[in-house]
Amino acid sequence: ELKVEQNPLFLSMQEGKNYTIYCNYSTTSDRLYWYRQDPGKSLESLFVLLSNGAVKQEGRLMASLDTKARLSTLHITAAVHDLSATYFCAVRPGGGKLIFGQGTTLQVKP
Amino acid sequence: DTAVSQTPKYLVTQMGNDKSIKCEQNLGHDTMYWYKQDSKKFLKIMFSYNNKELIINETVPNRFSPKSPDKAHLNLHINSLELGDSAVYFCASSQGARVAEKLFFGSGTQLSVL
């Protein structure tokens, strides 16, 4: 059974600090997605990574994909309170259904 | 204009009742989905339709029946509601079922079964 595991599941950090969220998946997938969900809200697409070595950056967030290691990272640089949310990675093996990780809840404290 | 809209946003009902959630997308997408998010925020796909045709049907009780009258709409009907059905249900759409397209999600329907 395909598994998508995120680490950590909960992260509390101070503003201005850097941190990385990890996403491991158990089967071949050459595409990986990152989504953000604010409390009580919908999911918003952040990044779509389509190939090995892909790196995408938007503001203080940078995502990368290593398909050989079956690992994606979401790096947060100089965190600010507005980044507080739950972040999900997801894979779509064979282009079919999207399989989500458990989510990482990020809390950025002033 | 909301790209993927679902109604109602909140649904509180008694066990044993039958209820429906509606979803519409105005993005011109061919594929629509229903996802269930449990109290631990875990998201799991339930169904997917491509051009009104069912293409993904996960292990979901047959009390759940999706209906797609056209490719812009995917409704979810639930019979004989149970306590365990309480969750947030998200509708989503994408351009295709097998392309590297991101999914666009609706705002969710929080279902509470009492």
Structural overview:
The complex is a heterodimer of chains A (110) and B (114). Chain A is built from no helices and 11 strands. With 110 residues, chain A is mainly beta. Chain B is built from no helices and 11 strands. Chains A and B meet through strand 4, strand 5 and strand 10 of A and strand 5 and strand 10 of B.
The termini of chain A sit apart by: 41 Å
Strand tally of chain A:
11
Radius of gyration based on Cα positions of chain B: 13 Å
Which value, in Å, is the CA radius of gyration of chain A?
A: 13 Å
Structural class of chain B: mainly beta
Tally the beta strands of chain B: 11
Count of DSSP helices of chain B? 0
Mean pLDDT of chain B: 91
Name the beta content range of chain A.
Answer: over 45%
- N-to-C series of helices and strands of chain B: EEEEEEEEEEE
| Outline type of chain B | globular
**Runs of chain A with pLDDT <50, length 5+?**
none
Task: List the topology elements.
The complex is a heterodimer of chains A (110) and B (114).
Chain A: E1 4-7, E2 10-14, E3 19-25, E4 32-37, E5 43-49, E6 55-58, E7 61-66, E8 71-76, E9 85-91, E10 99-100, E11 104-109
Parallel strand pairs in A: 2-11
Antiparallel strand pairs in A: 1-3, 3-8, 4-5, 4-9, 6-7, 7-8, 9-10, 9-11
Chain B: E1 4-7, E2 10-13, E3 19-25, E4 31-37, E5 43-50, E6 53-57, E7 64-70, E8 73-78, E9 87-94, E10 104-105, E11 109-113
